[in-house]
């Protein structure tokens, strides 16, 4: 199953692929050491094939969703409907 990320959200590298592809108009393959495990980046866009364009400190690269996870706490609370119901302050129920 492919994970979904909001454009502009922060993500973290949780595993390194065998190589990375640049997010240029003519993508090129680079060794995986241009990004580091645990490095954070910002989602730029969604690409075909389950790839995400992500801006890191050393450039923009395309990564499959299996190599990244969201670091935004707001996306975690939105995915759990139980968190939204707690503390609403409605005592009329």
TrEMBL record:
Pfam families per the UniProt record, alphabetical: CRR42-like
Domain of life from the UniProt record: Bacteria
Residue numbers spanned by region Disordered: 67-93
Coiled coil ranges: none
InterPro entries membership: CRR42-like (IPR021495)
PANTHER family reported for this sequence: PROTEIN CHLORORESPIRATORY REDUCTION 42, CHLOROPLASTIC, PTHR36799
Name recorded for this polypeptide: DUF3148 domain-containing protein
Annotated organism of origin: Nostoc piscinale CENA21
């Amino acid at each position: 199953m492919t994970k979904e990320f909001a454009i502009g959200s922060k993500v973290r590298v949780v595993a390194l692929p065998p190589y990375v592809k640049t997010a240029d108009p003519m993508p090129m393959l680079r060794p995986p050491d241009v990004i580091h495990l645990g490095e954070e980046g910002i989602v730029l866009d969604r690409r075909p094939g389950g790839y995400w364009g992500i801006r890191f400190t050393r450039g923009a690269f395309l990564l499959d969703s299996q190599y990244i996870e969201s670091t935004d706490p707001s996306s975690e609370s939105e995915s759990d409907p139980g968190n939204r119901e707690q503390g609403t302050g409605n005592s009329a129920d």
